[in-house]
Design a protein that fits this description.
This protein is mainly beta. It has one domain (1-53). The chain has 1 helix and 4 strands. It has one helix at residues 40-43, and strands spanning 15-16, 21-22, 29-30, 45-46. It has a two-stranded antiparallel sheet with strand order 1-2. Strand 1 (15-16) and strand 2 (21-22) form a beta hairpin. The longest helix is centred in the C-terminal third of the chain and has 4 residues, at 40-43. The protein is elongated and about 35 Å long. It binds iron/sulfur cluster. Iron/sulfur cluster binds next to loops. Iron/sulfur cluster (SF4) is lined by residues 5, 7, 9, 12, 14-15, 22, 24, 27, 46, 48-49.
Length: 53
């Protein structure tokens, strides 16, 4: 079943490029490493990301 997580991170192995969706049923969102400044870009990233080979 296709998940309902919209994502356009094409370098991730779980990304469905043509549909810009995540193929996982759930993901973990986590703060980016060394980020403690409160900006959305730095405080939230996908902890389930795995680089596509
Ligand atoms: S695991 Fe994270 S980065 Fe990868 S496609 Fe899913 S939501 Fe996007």
């Amino acid at each position: 079943m296709m998940s309902k997580i919209n994502c356009s991170v094409c370098s991730c192995k779980f990304n469905s490029k043509e549909h810009e969706k995540c193929t996982l049923s759930a993901i973990q969102v986590a703060p980016c490493a060394f980020a403690h400044n409160g900006s959305p870009e730095a405080e939230t990233c996908c902890g389930s990301y795995i680089k596509e080979k």
